[in-house]
Amino acid sequence: NSNLFRLYNGLVDYLTLNDNTGTSPVDSSANGNTATFGATTAAPTWISGGQFSNAVSFDGGDYIDVASPDLPTGDFTFGAWVYLDDSNGGLVFSVEDDSGDDDEFHFSINSSEQIEFRSNNALRLTGTTTLSTGTWTHVALTRSGSTVTAYVNGVAGGTASYATALSFANCRLY
Predict the structure, then answer these.
(1) Can you give the pLDDT at residue 5?
(2) CA 106: distance to chain centroid?
(3) Is-above-0.70 flag for pTM?
(4) CA 70 vs CA 12, 95, 148, 173: distances in Å
(5) What is the three-class DSSP state of 6?
(6) Beta pairing class for 54-57 and 45-48
(7) Contacts of 138 (CB under 8 A, 6+ apart)
(8) In the predicted structure, residue 12 carries a pLDDT above the cut 90
(9) Which of 163, 76, 89 is nearest to 133 (CA)?
(10) pLDDT tens digits, residue range 70-128?
């Protein structure tokens, strides 16, 4: 099926997060990027009631780590289904260098429930759409050329110009 090929062409990692078992979510992209649960407090937990079946619950001190994701440095799309329990916001994706001091790429939901994009520890974009708590929402961040766009449920909600090439050498995806 050519549509399926287009979906997977260039796809780096595809974690459905509905495995409901173990501590290593399956990468469905065919790239074999190993993902593992990690935590500074309690590890993520599997729950029922996800957007499509099961899901992973994060308490703010836990994460999923992909050690060598081979991420794109030019145009990109990062997307996820998120469920906000409260208005404290939270991390969606982060790519940090090995020192842990530099966020090369940081995609999050702020305390105003809007998408934020940071690169090299500087704010580059704040989305204009406010997410709702207590419901599943699809969020995405894309870059085409020098235009970065935030999407909420498929609708553009904020753009910014950012043309700097990202450097993901020695970086991990969280």
Answers:
(1) 41
(2) 9
(3) yes
(4) 7, 11, 20, 10
(5) helix
(6) antiparallel
(7) 79, 80, 81, 82, 151, 152, 153, 154
(8) no
(9) 89
(10) 777 788 888 888 888 877 777 787 777 655 556 678 888 999 999 999 888 888 999 99
d(CA 144, CA 74): 8
The pLDDT value given to residue 29: 77
State how far the Cα of 59 lies from the Cα of 40, in Å rounded to an integer: 10
- Taking the C-alpha atoms of residue 157 and residue 116, their distance in angstroms, rounded to an integer, is 11
Q: Which of 6-15, 31-40, 158-167 has the highest mean pLDDT?
A: 158-167
- The answer to whether 144 and 156 have CB atoms below 8 angstroms apart is no
Count other Cβ atoms within 10 Å, centred on residue 135: 11
Distance, in Å, from the CA atom of 168 to the CA atom of 165, rounded to the nearest integer, reads 10
Q: How far apart are CA 160 and CA 172, in angstroms?
A: 25
- Specify burial of residue 121 (Cβ count, 10 A radius: 0-12, 13-18, 19+): exposed
Of 109, 112, 97, the closest CA to residue 166 belongs to 97
CB-based burial, 14-52: b 16+ in 10 Å, e otherwise: ebebbbeeeeebbbeeeeebebebeeeeebbebeeebee
* 55 dihedral zone (left: phi>0; alpha: psi -120 to 50; beta): beta
Q: Amino acid identity, residue 29?
A: S
